Amino acid sequence: MSKSLFDNKIKSQAGNTMNFTRRNFLSSCSACAACMVIAPLNFLTPSSSQGNSDKKMRIRILYSLHEPVQKRPDWPNIGFDFNPVMEQINNALTRNFSDFEFIPTLASGPEEADKIVKKDSTDSIDGYIVYQMNCWNKVIQTIAKTGKPVLYADFQFGGSGGFLVYTSSFLREKTPNVGFVASARMEDIFAAVSCFNLIKQGKTNAEFVAATVQARLNSTRSPGKFALTANDIKSLSPEEAIRRLKHSKILAVRDQKSEIAEPMMGIPVEYIPFSEVNSAWSLANKEVAAGIVERWKKSALSIVGIPYETLLTSAAMYLGMKTVLQNHGANAITVNCLGGFYGGHIHAYPCLGFHELCNEGLVGGCECDVPSTATMLAFSTMTNGRPGFISDPVIDTSKRQITYAHCVAPNKVFGPAGESNPFRILTHSEDRSGASVQSILPVNYLTTTLEINNQRKEILFHQAVAVDNDPDDRACRTKLCAEPVGDIEKLFTMWDKWGWHRVTFYGDLKEPVFSMADAMGWKVIEEA
After folding, report:
1. For the segment 82-141, what is each residue's pLDDT rounded down to a tens digit?
2. Residue 192 phi, psi dihedral angles, 5° rounding
3. CB of 214 within 8 A of CB of 195?
4. Which residues contact 391 (CB under 8 A, 6 or more apart)?
5. Which residue in 92, 129, 261, 415 is a FRET match for 10, CA 20 to 30 A apart?
6. Residue 27 CB contacts under 8 Å (≥ 6 apart), including other chains
7. How much is the pTM?
8. What is d(CA 182, CA 403) in angstroms, rounded to the nearest whole number?
9. Res. 55 pLDDT band, cuts 50 70 90
């Protein structure tokens, strides 16, 4: 069994409106957060031996996170205690590298990172390990500018969004002193940390980074061989799909404003206010909503920690969103979920409603993400109703896997007339509130993952084989694990230009995607 601390799954609510994504919600919280105390906790004392510490290479470990015990909704989840995780990392590194001295420290952002760097200028620090524990804390950028060798590591299902976006930026800029490791296996961390020995031997940062690349390649599992389940798709011609999209409509619920926006991939887009959705929710037929709750209770594998009233308000939100779609002649809706709920503008999470809409051939998209919603609608239309699964991916080279994670997912991935897969109803993971879906998605199928960029007229594309569902309690509820087809190293390179979200469909959509791009004069970018 692996010694990875991550292999043992770690178990673990009215104001001005913003367009809240995970990114800007958390950055808006930082102004009211107390400055992180730099002084070490008990478990953060340096590992050193009397008498020979001057002979040891001194490596500062920087944990990039909000606070040791998380007080806000974000990955991994509110209330998550990082202390035992950090302690286990520190102890594992100390045991395995007796000739290094590790100095563990916490930092929540660039100001604290800058103070640490200034202190280190007189403390003879030889290099850095930066662990991205939460997603969007900007610590690594300051450390990279020191010119010292830096190893950047992802605490998976905790810091993965920032890790992918920031890593791809370093790769694009050819940052000469930053190597990275993206693995849930502690042995792979050890292999990367051992590359600091090259610096001790007088080698260059470039040689250090090259060694981390080789260590990552050596520890990446070889591609698997799969006898895939047949999964034929009857797709529309590009011309017919484009015609239908022009007669479609996306409703975007960002704040309290109404406006007609620029079409997205030829699809009309209209912004509507929270108040319209909330009114439709409040007027939803309660008996019909109760009937939907009874259906969920019968069909879900389990419903854990969700009061009946929360289920009822979630069903009413589904009915309300469907009414709004009908009133506007639209077939897709995307909602600024956290901004609406935390701001008191809507009174139920839309997760279960999105789940229902996607199951019946409509589109419900999270976080008022119009490009991802357009991606969902365009290729659901082209495939006669197959739903797209919007996600926040995580890459683990030790398994050669990408995990597509989110708290919204359909359970009819082959379309409204297709078979259903099992699902559970759990709380929305990051804040442990509301109700969301853990869909146990089918395995041994080829999947196609996409994202569009309307301005550049590009479609991002990769494919992967669905191999598992990860039950880890951290981060979003649905976690589809898949093995990418192609170059997994290349899969690290596009997140800074495209953002974190991707949209996954079941089936081989390569020919429909390329033919759609050709018909529209767009370009397909293969990211793996």
Report:
1. 999 999 999 999 999 999 999 999 999 999 999 999 999 998 999 999 999 999 999 999
2. -70, -40
3. no
4. 404, 405, 406, 476, 478, 480, 501, 502, 503, 504
5. 129
6. 136
7. 0.90
8. 12
9. confident
